[in-house]
Structures are given as structure tokens and as C-alpha cells.
Amino acid sequence: MAKELVTMSRTEIDRLGVIRKVLEGRLSQGKAGELLGLGARQVRRLATAYELEGPAGLASKKRGRPSNYRLPEALQLRALELVGGLYADFGPTLAREKLLELHGVQVSKETLRKWMAEAGIWVTRAKRLPRAHQPRNRRPCFGELVQIDGSPHAWFEARGPACTLLVYVDDATGKVMELRFVESESTFDYFASTASYIRRFGKPVAFYSDKHGVFRVAQPGPSGRGQGLTQFGRALDALNIDIICANSPQAKGRVERMNKTLQDRLVKELRLAGVSNAEAGNDFAPGYMEDYNRRFARAPANSHDAHRPLQDGEDLSFIFTWQEDRTMSRRENRLPTGGRRLPPAVRARRKGAPQGGRPPSHRTPSRA
């Protein structure tokens, strides 16, 4: 006689032992109900099913059958057809948004994630390499720490030239605070981006960056760097804003992960919008930031806004300029570079300098 194979869960196996004791008279139905967390009527029903069908009577009749809430197969085929044809490089969350917005296909992101994984379009987190670094705890207040970085990438794919995206991310909330497409990371581009940030939100407590030459002096030298400050560092010092340089990319992981997210989501949004150059990208960025922050930003642990207003005399158009201390020529009352005449008052001080004394210096800002 062939043996019947019955698939049972751990709970059903435990019920089997208790029901056997009930039928053998070693356990009352009331006591069995207490052990199983069931009523006496349910225990009688299970005992009857066991007598008629054996162990199979205790197994769930729904096992192996499709769920009553299962989505139509035609919907699954339609969704996978669209994703495979148009959004093969999209993640499940972004693909789900575009299916709903552009095609009217409504499906939850987790269902779509499962379908994409089964179709080989998406690699689940369980199959990815584990993280090597523990994430750092967020700062509690909005504006307490803002991570900044430049991300060179083919943002416009084959439609336009590769460029760099300057990214500002608030550490407490994960909000994208500033996005600006530029040719490359430069002091003047960071001047413009930071000035735009401060005009909209105020002065943060600190910026967190890498050790790019815009933020950190490797070797103090000429051009106003004798005190170990770059032009960007000098401007932040004048505004009483700290600049912290991370020792590794993982230390500023918030903005590094944002770069990866933007290289995925933003590139596709730019493609769908037909944006193909930096100027159009900068026009597109404010709307994208507003939509992104509305959906993905989180509330800070502390409701205090750490941004500070500008003080009297803090002129951003002057502070964010290239400023250097140069020594005046001894022969002529001219600057060593540029050949411009000094103001009369400065020339008078130059002529009155003591013999052998150090000539006065003159700061010449050139506006960004």
C-alpha cells in the first residue's frame, strides 16, 4: 500500500499530538482548547476531522491553492512587459510610480518587487553583498549638519555631455537641500551653490565634505592659504560655519548614498523629461527636489531648526568672492598682478612706511 505524504506546519503537528490524546481519553476537550488556544467547539471539529481523514484532516485545505486575493495573471504580464521594455533599469519603487503615473497600472511596490525578482529583473537585498560599515546616527536637528559632495556622471546619458552634480543633503532629515549641475567641482560653483542655500534656508551649523581641494589645503602656501584655509573655507569662517572633512567616503555615507540614488532615479527622470544639458537640468532640479523631499524625507529627532539668519554686515555677494592678500610693489604703487593703481590713501601709507619696514598689503577681491 502506497504511503500518503501530508505536508503540515509546526502548529498543525502540535495539534496532532494534542488531538490524539483527546481521542485516547487522556485529555479533556476543555484542557486541549487551553493548550491550543482554541475553543471546545473547534477542538471537537478537529477531532472529528482526524477520525475521518487521519493527519490530513488537520492540515489546512488552503495549502497549495491560489489566494483569493491574488492579482489577475494578465495584470502581472502587463506590468512585467512594461517594466522589461521601458523600465528595465528602474528599481521597484520608481518603476511602480511610473506604471501608475504613465500607464494606469496599479500594483504595490512589494508585489512588483516580487514579480521583478522572479523574472530576473531585480536582485533582492538578501542576495546582495552585506554592508561593511555601520551607518552613523543622524544629527537630531534640521540644519545641524549638511553633507555636500560633487558627483561626476553621465547625467544626460547620450543626450548631452557628462558633468558634475553638486549635492547638499541635510543629515537629520535626509532632505535634498541643493542640486546644481556644473562642469566640474570648483570653488566658484560651490560659492554659488552655498550662497543659494543660505539665502533660502539660513546658515547651517556645519558642512560635512570630503578632502577635495575646494575644502582642504593639503600644503599651506601662497594665494591666501598660509593659514590653512581654502577660499571656500575662508568664506565659511567669515559666516561662522564649520567645515568638517571626512576621512573616508563611508564617513559621509548619507550624501554618498544620495549620489547613488540620484544616479538611478534622477537620470531616469531627466530622460523622461527630455532634459539634455546643465542649464535645463538646473531648471528641472527645484521641482524634483520638492517632489523627492515630499515623499522620502523624514522628520528630525528634534524639531528645532538649527539654521541661523544672516547678521548685519554679512554680505554674501562679497564674502563668496576670491580674496587674496598681496604685497605692494616697492618701486611703484601698483599691485604685483593686474597693474592697477592703488587708492591715494593707500599710496600715502606706502610712502610713509618706515625704512626697512614691511610694505602694507592690499586685499583685492574678485567677485564670483
Compact summary:
This protein is an alpha/beta fold and 368 residues long. It contains twelve helices and eleven strands.
Description:
The protein is an alpha/beta fold. The chain folds into four domains: 10-58; 73-125; 141-305, Ribonuclease H-like superfamily/Ribonuclease H (Nucleotidyltransferase, domain 5); 329-367, no CATH class. Helices cover 40% and strands 13% of the residues. The protein contains twelve helices and eleven strands. The strands form four sheets. It has a five-stranded mixed beta sheet with strand order 4-3-2-5-6, with helices on both faces. Helix 1 packs across helix 3 (40-53) and helix 5 (92-103) packs across helix 6. The longest helix has 21 residues, at 253-273.
Mean pLDDT: 84
Whole-number radius of gyration?
34 Å
* Total number of distinct structural domains: 4
CATH top-level class of the largest domain: Alpha Beta
Kindly report the name of the CATH homologous superfamily of the largest domain.
Answer: Ribonuclease H-like superfamily/Ribonuclease H
CATH architecture of the largest domain: 2-Layer Sandwich
Tally of helical segments: 12
| Large-scale geometry | elongated
SS elements, strand count: 11
Secondary-structure content class: alpha/beta
Sheet-strand content, in percent, reads: 5-15%
Neighbour order of strands in the largest sheet: 4-3-2-5-6
Question: Secondary-structure map with pairings?
Answer:
Layout: H1 10-23, H2 29-36, H3 40-53, H4 73-86, H5 92-103, H6 109-118, E1 141-142, E2 146-153, E3 163-170, E4 176-182, H7 187-201, E5 206-209, H8 231-238, E6 242-245, H9 253-273, H10 278-296, E7 302-305, H11 316-319, E8 321-322, E9 325-327, H12 344-351, E10 361-363, E11 366-367
Parallel strand pairs: 1-7, 2-5, 5-6
Antiparallel strand pairs: 2-3, 3-4, 8-11, 9-10
Helix pairs in contact: 1-2, 1-3, 2-3, 5-6
